[in-house]
Write a structure and sequence with these properties.
Number of domains of chain A: 2
Bound molecules: thiamine diphosphate
CATH class of chain B: Alpha Beta
Distance between the termini of chain B: 50 Å
Structural class of chain B: alpha/beta
Strand content of chain B: 5-15%
Keywords (chain A): Oxidoreductase, Thiamine pyrophosphate
CATH superfamily of the largest domain in chain A: Thiamin diphosphate (ThDP)-binding fold, Pyr/PP domains
Radius of gyration of chain A: 20 Å
CATH topology of chain B: Rossmann fold
Number of domains of chain B: 1
Strand order of the largest sheet of chain A: 3-2-4-5-7-6-12
CATH architecture of the largest domain in chain A: 3-Layer(aba) Sandwich
Radius of gyration of chain B: 19 Å
Number of strands of chain B: 8
Number of strands of chain A: 14
Distance between the termini of chain A: 41 Å
Strand order of the largest sheet of chain B: 2-1-3-4-8-7
Helix content of chain A: 25-40%
Helix content of chain B: 40-55%
Oligomer: heterodimer
GO molecular function (chain A): oxidoreductase activity
Cofactor (chain A): thiamine diphosphate
CATH superfamily of chain B: Thiamin diphosphate (ThDP)-binding fold, Pyr/PP domains
Protein name (chain A): Alpha-ketoacid dehydrogenase subunit beta
Largest sheet of chain B: 6 strands, parallel
Shape of chain B: globular
CATH class of the largest domain in chain A: Alpha Beta
Largest interface: A-B, 38 and 41 residues
Organism (chain A): Chitinophaga oryziterrae
Chain lengths: ~325, ~325
């Protein structure tokens, strides 16, 4: 079976673009709206060329009015369209947070089940391009806190390519986080859309000694760390959470039942983040499986500073992961 | 107007605009050398606005600006070396290196930054003006922003609040016709921005932002009105950015011919021509200014180069006091 699946190597940017193009070709109710998605070609060139292909009715440039156009996305979704709303950078999403929380996530419940909001919001985020304290954050946990939303994190090329369609198929609002530092990086994607299940976490690397549980910007770093550790005789498993709400407990628990150790890694600020929740669930459910205390590596609690050396120090790096794992492995 | 211009003042205006221009050309160069990183938004073409408005502000007045704020900072008299050091990320920078190009702050100069959330500073400007009024200080809060920002809810909320509370804010809208790649006709249903002031009961004027003398005169009237009445004022300056939005912009959204057309209205050549034409200054004077500015910019670069990196142990500084 595996031999039939074709893989291609593309950039993360191209993976997102292909996903959007395919969704738009399949369903004429799908349209993209966001700041500078059309004439500018997308702030990060993700949607470059799509305006020419689909025209301004389906690739809609919007004014700087985040609350307004996210609200409009909700309204269009209520009335039968399938909007993909792009938030240029996670920080600007805060201007629309009211619409996301008080409307998109809430209408189904508040209306006693009468209203669905099949809206997809794509948010680019992350640290690593020296964009300082108003342009570089990982705020997945803010959204993961909200019942009514599905929150996805595209930490790999595969997910960047194939998460969008299942998200559009969802009757409920879905937030997809994309990572700007990955845009130019090449990676493998399969041509089979069935490869991505947006209800499940994904084991990216099998291992038996310790589970590195991460998502988003942490995935490739964890895989690199695992490669280094393998050379030193430590066999790490890498679990990409990828669905941050609702969390998939079973994939995490299965991994920890196998390895008996866990390191949780993410770039979001350390306190009250996704790792906090995963850690608590491990304690509540499979505490006696553990051979060592669970450890967390999160972002330093500081608005992101501009200089490279301070920016790097603000989030866990590959070396930090390696060091933390060596420490955990000292426990018997 | 131009007849009342003396050599001292004319030269001063010219010098300030030329300094911004040269400083930013140098910054672009340093960006390609990767000395400056992150986002870099140049003000080239729009110098007349910052310089003209700043002429009418006093030391006790306060300024808020956007991520495109090198010009405002320089025109306000923030030290060029400390700005360049900030763009390098060195701790000698005006924001201790923490902010970079988009976040220049200098409280000694009452320069309240560099805000990179579009529209994010307008409410604060109203609050600062409210504080001034409550404490019976006769200072003005001057807030610069682009026409793109005028589509944000913040703009409309801030305009209403400023008028409702009768507080001394000078709202300066720098209409350079584009918000990134979105032309004003795609972001505003009503593109004559000056029509938006009266709806909030705010005194409004529109001016050619490529003419520093006109900007200065309009800002003079505006600030006199604010000082006399304590009420807000909305000043629309029509201008144009000659360069890309930032260093990441391929400029797919506008024709080179349009840019060239606007370059004919370059505010610096315009002032140079009229000053020379009126025999107020000579071409030699301009050359002399060029030389002086070259040295000043080079000194700023040297200062930044000689600056130091903040130790990584201090990462968590400036989160709480
Ligand atoms: C709230 C918010 N949304 C989007 C952006 C991204 N962005 C930065 S500048 C800009 C255009 C702003 O245009 P304008 O206000 O006209 O100012 P200009 O850049 O032309 O000086 C955009 C969309 C942002 N920084 N903040």
């Amino acid at each position: 079976m595996d031999a039939l699946i074709k893989n291609t190597t593309i950039t993360y940017r191209e993976a997102i673009k292909q996903a959007i193009r395919e969704a738009m070709q399949k369903d004429e109710k799908v349209f993209l709206m966001g700041e500078d998605v059309g004439r500018y070609g997308g702030a990060f060139a993700v949607s470059k060329g799509l305006l020419q292909e689909f025209g301004p009715d389906r690739i809609m440039d919007v004014p700087l009015s985040e609350s307004g156009f996210v609200g409009a996305g909700i309204g269009a979704a209520l009335k039968g369209m399938r909007p993909i709303v792009e938030i240029m950078t996670v920080n600007f999403g805060l201007l629309a947070m009211d619409q996301v929380v008080n409307n998109a996530a809430t209408l189904l419940h508040m209306s006693g089940g009468q209203l669905n909001v099949p809206l997809v919001i794509r948010i680019s985020c992350g640290i690593g391009r020296q964009l300082a304290a108003q342009h570089s954050h990982s705020w997945e946990p803010l959204y993961a806190h909200i019942p009514g939303l599905k929150v996805l994190s595209a930490g790999t090329h595969e997910d960047a390519r194939h998460m969008l369609q299942p998200a559009l198929n969802s009757p409920d609002p879905v937030i997809i986080f994309e990572y700007t530092f990955l845009l130019n990086a090449e990676g493998e994607v399969s041509e089979d859309a069935g490869m991505v299940d947006i209800t499940k976490a994904k084991v990216r690397r099998q291992g038996k000694d310790i589970s590195i549980i991460t998502y988003g910007a942490g995935v490739y770093k964890a895989l690199e760390a695992a490669t280094v550790l393998a050379a030193e005789g430590i066999d790490a498993e890498v679990v990409d959470l990828r669905v941050l709400r609702p969390l998939d407990n079973e994939t995490v628990f299965d991994s920890v039942r196998k390895t008996h150790r866990a390191l949780l890694v993410e770039e979001a600020w350390g306190a009250v983040n996704v790792s906090s929740e995963v850690c608590a669930r491990i304690m509540e459910n499979i505490f006696y499986e553990l051979d060592a205390p669970v450890m967390r590596l999160g972002g330093q609690e500081v608005p992101i500073p501009y200089p490279k050396h301070l920016e790097n120090a603000s989030v866990p790096q590959k070396e930090d992961i390696i060091n933390a794992i060596k420490k955990i492995m000292l426990h018997d | 107007m131009e007849n009342s211009l003396d050599k001292l003042h004319g030269t001063d205006l010219l010098y300030r605009m030329m300094l911004i221009r040269r400083f930013e050309e140098k910054s672009a160069e340093l960006y390609t050398k990767e000395k400056i990183r992150g986002f870099l938004h140049l003000y080239i073409g729009e110098e007349a606005v910052a310089v003209g408005v700043m002429q009418c502000l006093k030391a006790e007045d306060n300024i808020l600006s956007t991520y495109r704020e090198h010009g405002h900072a320089l025109a306000r008299g923030v030290d060029a070396g400390s700005i360049m050091a900030e763009m390098y990320g060195k701790q000698e920078g005006c924001s201790h290196g923490r902010g970079g190009s988009m976040h220049l702050f200098d409280i000694k100069k009452n320069f309240y930054g560099g805000n990179a959330i579009v529209g994010g500073h307008l409410g604060m400007a109203v609050g600062m003006a409210l504080a001034a009024r409550k404490q019976q200080q006769n200072s003005i809060i001057c807030c610069f922003f682009g026409e793109g920002a005028a589509a944000e809810g913040e703009f409309h909320e801030a305009m209403n609040l400023a008028s409702l509370w009768s507080v001394p804010v000078l709202f300066v809208c720098e209409n350079n016709l584009y918000a990134m790649g979105t032309a004003i006709r795609f972001s505003h249903a009503v593109t004559e921005l000056e029509k938006k002031g009266p709806g909030y009961g705010i005194e409004t004027a529109v001016v050619d932002g490529m003419d520093v003398l006109a900007v200065e005169e309009a800002a003079k009237k505006a600030t006199e009105m604010i000082r006399a009445t304590g009420r807000p004022f909305f000043l629309v300056c029509n201008t144009y950015r000659f360069r890309a939005h930032s260093m990441f912009d391929a400029e797919l959204y506008r024709d080179k011919a349009e840019v060239d057309e606007w370059k004919k209205r370059d505010p610096i050549t315009r002032l140079q021509k009229s000053l020379v034409g009126l025999n107020i200054i000579t071409n030699e004077d301009i050359e002399e200014l060029n030389g002086k500015i070259e040295t000043e910019v080079q000194n700023a670069v040297d200062f930044a180069e000689a600056g130091t990196w903040e130790p990584v142990e201090e990462l968590k500084k400036f989160v709480y006091t």
